[in-house]
Amino acid sequence: MRIEDYALIGDMHTAALVGRDGSVDWLCLPRFDSGACFAALLDGPRAGRWLLAPAGRQVCTGRRYHDDTLILETTWDSAGGCVRVMDFMPPRGQAPAVIRVVEGVRGRVEMRTELMLRFDYGHVVPWVHHDGGQLAVVAGPDAAWLQGPAELCPDEEAHRTTATFTVRAGDRVPSVLTWQSSWLPRPDPVDAVESLTSTELLWKQWLERCRYAGGYGEAVRRSLLTLKALTYAPTGGIVAAPTASLPEQLGGPRNWDYRYSWLRDAAFTLQALMRAGYDAEATAWRDWLLRAVAGSPADLQIMYTLDGCRRIPEWTVDWLSGYERSQPVRIGNAACEQFQLDVYGEVLDCLELAREAGLAPDEDAWDLQRVLMDYLEGAWKKPDNGLWEMRGPRRDFVHSKILAWVAADRMISAVENHGRDGPVHRWRALRAEIHRDVCTRGYDPGRNTFTQYYGSKGLDAALLLIPRLGFLPPDDPRVAGTVEAVQRELVEGGFVLRYRPGAEDVDALPGTEGTFLACSFWLADALALLGRRQEARRLFERLLALRNDVGLLSEEYDVTRHRQVGNFPQAYSHVSVINTAAVLAGDGDNRTRRARHHPGQSVAGLEETGNAIRRQRMLP
């Protein structure tokens, strides 16, 4: 099953992936970062799955989401009849539940269900027995119950439970799987019909709050729903993706666990949500942030668990073969221990955007920002691991330094535009110093481009963000030169690589990776800001065409195999759908406009830089 053959269902505590064959191949209970009880995605059926499909039929004839919801409708059509399966997870009540309702559309169809629960990422085979008309499954701390449409028959030799039943036109046949900690009483039965109604209402009411009115509305709405589905409702934390170890290179070792809340990814997600009018999510994330980062600013991590825990040990699941034999299968993420300078700027930028959106002031939040800025004043010169979490030596990454500039700029804006208190003269001096440093040490005048890190000849797609961040205005010749360099050196098959893996041994990892979808959207943004709007629109529509049949995108795209790769669905990619649609709709970013007024360099200085570039181009 290809990555793009999956669809997402979820309840804002966890999420499941459902394949075109009717199999739930990934589900972690009770929350996103719990151990998987269905892990067929990373091995095969033996690692756990829940199949529900017509007997003998492998792939559906069509599927879609029901209106603007997270209720998946999958249709199987044959000569004998037609059935529709509705998969969803209702709002969390006593316990998490996955509900699958088979509807008879035409004729009669024999259905088959197969349940293989395997707790702890496919490692633990549970004890299965009948309990009060339901199938009960128990293993250590985990218990589950399946209420199905027919007598479920455990197959002890194959460690699976199966059943067959016939559905006729007009029938509606539900199956309900619930989970609970094994030491707690069995949860009350879940009414599938009532749950379907409440789930539909939940998603539709949430989307009614959307204030986005630009073009590409269908794509924006689906991306908003996906981002909301990646939010952990109890705390406001946001996961980067609901999966672990889906490969960036099929068969390769670049396999990471994304079921945690990255400050950077969450900040990008909140920017997109706030742009569409979802201020409540911004407030919840701000509260999560204050709890998670409490302590010394020197100890700020790039990511936390959904409830703000700091320890995310990385280990390998040696009993899983990996998606299409991509090994190792990693759980946890050692990058949590890295120093990434840019996250300070990302957080302060997001909180400034919240102020601009009119969120109520929070004194604790401002105190946090003051503390982070005090630390950054003494730390911005340090080399770091960079935006892409390089596992090689720390370097002076240009994007990281620019985000240090962003941090100072947003703090100045808070004082000048929102009445906050702080040493604004000191911050202005720091902003100017960082700007000079980047433009002197991170810019290659011979090639008219900024570089990946100080002294490097390599490029980084994150440099495309320079005009959006307000570091330089779009009409600065260095911006155009950088965009052209990225197009020349980092584009493959029409899409953008993050950087060249293996070049200058920057990431210290073997293998390659696909083109990074968010970076490709960033190129569309940059082209639009440069006035090349038709070119930007063409690229954006090519990117939208990569979405699967239900509108979902993974992290990367393999231009050789024409397949989605990386964890799925990826928040970064769906954030970019929303932001680029807004840019093309003419919803300019205040930060970009402000760059025309305080880029950190005088107008005369900008003119001299432009003259120097033009002189360089005239040299033989």
Automatic annotation (TrEMBL):
Cite the EC number.
Answer: 3.2.1.28
Which keywords fit this entry according to its UniProt record? Carbohydrate metabolism, Glycosidase, Hydrolase
- What cofactor is this protein dependent on? phosphate
Q: What class of enzyme is it?
A: hydrolase
Pfam families linked to this entry: Glyco_hydro_15, TREH_N
Catalytic activity, as annotated: alpha,alpha-trehalose + H2O = alpha-D-glucose + beta-D-glucose
SUPFAM superfamilies linked = Six-hairpin glycosidases (SSF48208)
Check the record and name the InterPro entries matching this protein: 6-hairpin_glycosidase_sf, 6hp_glycosidase-like_sf, GH15-like, Trehalase-like_N
Biological or metabolic pathway of the protein: Glycan degradation; trehalose degradation; D-glucose from alpha,alpha-trehalose: step 1/1
Gene3D superfamilies tied to this protein: 1.50.10.10
The reply on keyword Hydrolase is yes
* Protein name per UniProt: Trehalase
Organism for this UniProt entry: Streptosporangium minutum
